[in-house]
Specification:
Elements lengths: L14 H16 L5 H22 L4 H5 L3 H13 L4 H20 L6 H4 L16 H7 L12 H17 L3 H5 L13 E5 L5 E5 L2 H13 L34 H4 L15 E2 L5 E2 L25
Antiparallel strand pairs: 1-2, 3-4
């Protein structure tokens, strides 16, 4: 069966509109520092909107966008719904189109009032995904890791990583990306991490988390330079989820825990800390192991998907 033809990445429209799309996408990357995947998703959603207008009204121009009516936007939403697009993806599509409309307004082309007159689609709320009964019981056993043929320092390393995941609310990539010089040790109440989109933020660290990291460093047989990765594998190289033989999280029932989200809520009180890059972290954190919600550090770098 032949493969479907690739979509033309060039947005429809006259020269002025295409130049505006190019400048808008460039601004998202350079000025707003959005992640590359987010910018590509916004460009794709805007291109689909312009293709819809091109099929219904002819080659779109900037004045045509300014003159849009709410029914035109609703027709686009209905057409996407008919194609099987879910509410989250449709909400992201409207976010991309509205972002471009704000750019046109800033550049003096006029206001696309139709987008403000249309409500975003409702998104079905999903319940949290708790651990299964077997996995929850396994996590409470004191002999969870007895009998494993692994060195004690590796067990201490895994305990420190898990402490950062569950006790500080870090993603796995954030925890494994910490350098030795930034290790949250006893007496240090915050750690600086680099998250999605290259954004830097500071996260509160509980004393028990710092104690777990200190115990790992004391047991680690390798001498780590300040710029080396804090967490290393059995051969001394930087640790990664793929290179580790430990399931994330290592709860004794890996198959039951694979549905657990990669980012867990933090047990620290709600705090607001400004990072060196000017970003803020004012996240309300739950002390429960089962996540009540999945908050993100920046709505600019994370968009809803189905």
């Amino acid at each position: 069966m032949p493969a479907p033809p690739a979509l033309d990445p060039t947005p429809p429209g006259d020269a002025a509109l295409r130049e505006a799309v190019r400048a808008w996408a460039d601004g998202l990357s350079r000025e707003r520092r959005m992640a590359r995947n987010t910018v590509e998703a916004y460009e794709r959603d805007l291109r689909q909107f312009l293709l819809h207008l091109d099929a219904r009204r002819g080659t779109p121009r900037i004045p045509d966008l300014v003159a849009l009516k709410p029914r035109d936007v609703r027709a686009f939403m209905a057409a996407r719904r008919a194609e099987g697009i879910g509410g989250r993806s449709l909400m992201r599509a409207l976010a991309g189109v509205r972002s471009f409309a704000r750019y046109l307004e800033r550049e003096g082309h006029g206001t696309v009032a139709a987008l403000g007159a249309v409500r975003s689609p409702k998104v079905e709320r999903r319940l949290p995904r708790p651990l299964g009964v077997a996995a929850a019981r396994a996590m409470t056993r004191t002999d969870l890791r007895e009998g494993e043929d692994r060195e004690p320092w590796i067990l201490a390393r895994d305990a420190a990583v898990l402490a950062l995941l569950y006790g500080a609310g870090l993603r796995i990539s954030e925890a494994l990306g910490i350098a030795r010089k930034d290790a949250p040790l006893t007496g240090i109440d915050a750690v600086t991490v680099t998250g999605k989109g290259g954004k830097v933020r500071m996260v509160p660290v509980l004393p028990v988390v710092a104690e777990a990291v200190a115990a790992y460093l004391k047991a680690c047989p390798y001498t780590l330079d300040p710029d080396d990765a804090l967490f290393v594998g059995a051969r001394g190289g930087p640790l990664s989820p793929a290179s580790s033989s430990t399931p994330w999280p290592p709860c004794g029932a890996p198959s039951a825990c694979r549905t657990a989200p990669r980012r867990m809520p933090c047990a620290t009180p709600s705090r607001r800390i400004s990072s060196p890059a000017g970003e803020s972290c004012g996240r309300s954190r739950s002390c429960s192991v089962t996540p009540r919600s999945r908050r993100r550090s920046s709505t600019r770098s994370s968009t809803p998907h189905d």
